[in-house]
Amino acid sequence: MSGELNLPTLLKHMQPVRHGEYAFCVLDEDTYKALPMRPLCTFQEQEGLTVILEQEIADQLSLPYTYVGTLITLNVHSSLDAVGFLARITSKLAKAGISLNAFSPVYHDHIFVRPLEVERAMRLLRELSKEVP
Q1: Average confidence score pLDDT of the chain
Q2: Of 2, 13, 82, 112, which has the fewest beta carbons less than 10 angstroms from its beta carbon?
Q3: What is the pLDDT of residue 133?
Q4: Domain hosting residue 31, numbered range
């Protein structure tokens, strides 16, 4: 099943949903293998393995982290070939002074924003969705 390509459709139907707070950790291989659960996401870079997991779990395991973000899922099945969807979202939030970290797996786009900014980000995303004719 392929995702949506049409930018106005994506924006109109994105239905942002707020989730919990997640910690971005850089872990060595042994620490990663010893995790008692699967993280939300991992990404291997040349400098190290980034692991994204619930902040509460990172705290319980005394794992150091460099960023905490509240996860917002954009509940429209976007195509990996869609053009401009995240650009419109990042532009809208940037104009409000809100930074984000984005992740786009196969079905949905997800963004992480600082917990103190999540309410404003959700409001702006809902506004952006309503701006589309």
Answers
A1: 95
A2: 2
A3: 76
A4: 7-131
User: How far is the C-alpha of 127 from the C-alpha of 20, rounded, in Å?
Assistant: 22
The answer to whether residue 2 sits within a structural domain is: no
Domain assignment of residue 109, yes or no: yes
Q: Say if residues 85 and 29 touch (Cβ distance below 8 Å).
A: no
Six-digit token pair at 66? 């460099």
Q: In CATH, what number is assigned to the domain containing residue 122?
A: 3.30.2130.10
Identify whether 1 is part of a domain.
no
Kindly state whether residue 13 falls inside one of the protein's structural domains.
Answer: yes
pLDDT at 132: 81
Q: Residue-wise over 55-89: b if at least 16 C-beta within 10 A, else e?
A: bebbeeeebebeeebbbbbbebbbbeebeebbebb
Q: What is the 3-state secondary structure (H, E, C) of the chain?
A: CCCECCHHHHHHCCCEEEEEEEEEEEECHHHHHCCCCCCCEEEEECCEEEEEEEHHHHHHCCCCCCEEEEEEEECCCECCCCCCHHHHHHHHHHHCCCCCEEECCCCCEEEEECHHHHHHHHHHHHHHHHHCC
Compute the distance between CA of residue 89 and CA of residue 71 in angstroms, rounded to an integer.
14
